[in-house]
Amino acid sequence: MFANLINKIKNSYIVCNYSKMYPYVRPYAFRALIAVLITIPIGSMDAIIAWSLKPYMDIVMVEKSTSSTAYIPLLIIVFSVLQSLLNYTATYLNTWVGRKIANDVKVDLFEKLMHYDAQFFDSRRSGDVLFQFNTNVDTACNGLLANLKLFTTRVFSSLSLIGVLFYNSWQLAIVAVIVLLGALYPLTTLRRKLKALFDKNIFSSSAVMSHFNETYSGNRIIASYNLYDYQMARFKETLRTLFKLGIKMIQRTGMLSPIMHFVVSLGIAAVIWLGSYLIVTHQISAGNFVSFITALIMLYNPIKSIGNNYNSVQLSLMAMECVFGLLEGKPKITSKPGAKPLQSIKNTIEYKDVCFEYLPGKPVLKNINLTIAKGQTIAFVGNSGGGKTTLVNLLPRFYDVKSGQILIDGEDIRNLELNSLRDKIAIVFQDNFLFAGTIRDNILLGAENATPEQINQAVKSACLDEFIASLDKGLDTGIGERGVLLSGGQKQRIAIARAFIKNAPIVILDEATSALDNKSEAIVQEAINNLMQDRTVFVIAHRLSTVRHADKIVVVNYGEIAEIGSHEELLNKENGVYAALYKTQLK
Ligand SMILES: Nc1ncnc2c1ncn2[C@@H]1O[C@H](COP(=O)(O)OP(=O)(O)OP(=O)(O)O)[C@@H](O)[C@H]1O
Ligand SMILES: [Mg+2]
Asked: What's residue 78's pLDDT?
C-alpha cells in the first residue's frame, strides 16, 4: 500500500511538472535552494511567539513576577525583525530565480515557435501564440515560485505551530489537527473544478490579444468600412465571456473559504470547550492554554486564506502544463536524422504524382507531374486559387506533399537537410513580409555578409536605385513595421533585392512584379532575365507578357495541370486554355 502511495505521488501531475521543470531550475539551483531553506526559519519563528506566551502567562499573570520574563518582549521584537528581513531575502531570491527561469523557458519556446511549420501557424491566432508562448510562461514560472515560497513558509510555520500545540497539550492538539485536516479536504477537489475553466480562459484571453492585433493591422480596413461598431461589439463579447469565466471561477472556488472558516470555527469552539475542562481539572496551566490558543489561531488563520492561494498555485500548474505541452510538441517538418545536405543542383527537379491538401478531403493539387531541368525557367499560369502558390511552396517544404514525391536530382526532398534545401532557394512571395528596420537591414536578410558592391548591384537590379537616391537617409531609411511606410511596389522591389542578393540556384517568383509600373517592370524583368542565367526559376504570373519567354509554361487550373508547353506550342494548340487566355489579355 505504501509503494502504491509513492507511485501515486510520483505520477501525480505536480511531481511530473516539477520534475520537468528541473532542467530549468538546475542552473539556479543554489539560489533556489537557499530561497526554500530560508522559509524554514521564517515559518518556524511564528511558533516562537506563540510558545513564549506560556512562560509569560504562567509567571507574570499567575505568579505576578516579572524578573525572569523581561527578555520576552525583546525576544519578540528581535524575532519579528529577523523574520521580516528573511522574508525580504526570500522574496528577492524567488523573484530573481523565477524571472531567470521564465526567460530560459521563453527562449526555448521562441526557438520552437520559429521552427514550427506553416500549418502550425495556419491553425492559430496571433493572440494564441502570444498568450501561450509568453503570458503563460510568466504565470507558470513567477506564480509558481512566489506560491512555492508562501507554501513552504506555511508548511514550516504549520509544523512548528503544531509542535507548540503538542508541547502545550497533546489532547487539544489531536483535536486541532483533525479539524485542520477536515478544513483542508475540500482543496482536493479544486483542480478538477478549475481545469475546464482554465482552458476556456486561455482561449478568451488570447482572443482579446487577437482583437488588438487585428485592430492594429487592420486599422485602415476598419476605418474605410466603418467597422468601429462591429469591432467594438466583438471586443465586448470577448470581454463578457472572460468576465463570466472569472465569476465562475470565484463561484466554484470562492465557497472554499467560507467552508474552511466554518470548519475552523468548529475547531476553535471544540478546543475552548475541552480546554476549559482541562484547566479546571488542572491537567494544563492557564499559560499552556493561552499559548495553545495563540498557536491555534496562527495556524488556522492562513488556512482560511489558503483557498485563494491554492487557487493560484493550481492556475500556475495548469499554465505550466500548457508550457510543457508546447515544449514537447514537435514541428512536423524537420530534417530527418542523418539527412544529407543539398550541395548543389546538378540535373533536375521533379514533381512526381504530387497530391496535396490543406484540409482533409479538400484536394488542392491533384497528381502533379513535372520535370524541370537545371537552368530552365518554368512558368505557372492559371485560375486564381488554382494552386500555383501551393505548388511552389512545396519545394522549400513549407508543407509536405500528401502523396507522391518531389525529387531534386532523384533524391526526395524530405531526405535532404532542411536548412541546406532552403538555402538553395530564393523566394519573392506574393505578399512579402518586411521586418521593422531599414531598407538595408531588409535587403541584407538575403545575405548577411554581402559587400556594399553586392548591395548596390541588388538595388540596381531591383530598380530601387532611383527611389533610394531620393531618400535623405538612403539605404538607412526606416520602413516601419511590416514596411508600412513604403508603397506596394517599393516593398515588392525590396523583396526582389533581398532575393537577388541571396544568390541561390533556385529562384521562385510568385507574382513578383505584379505591383510594378510598366517601366519598373521592364527593368526588373531584365534583371530577372540576367539572374535567370544558369539558375532554375519558377515564375508565377497572371500577366502573360512576363512568362512568354519561359522554357516551359504550365497552366494550372483547379489543382490540375491543364497544359504544358512553350509559349509557341501552347498558342498553336487548338482550343487551348493558354491560347484563349492570351487572346483575352491581348485585347
Ligand atoms: N494556408 C491555407 N490553408 C488552407 N487553404 C489554403 C491555404 N492557402 C491556400 N489555400 C487554398 O488552396 C487553394 C490554392 O491556393 P493558392 O494560393 O495555391 O492559389 P493560387 O493559384 O496561387 O492563386 P492566386 O493566383 O490567386 O495567387 C485555394 O483554394 C486556397 O483557398
Ligand atoms: Mg498565388
From this structure: 86
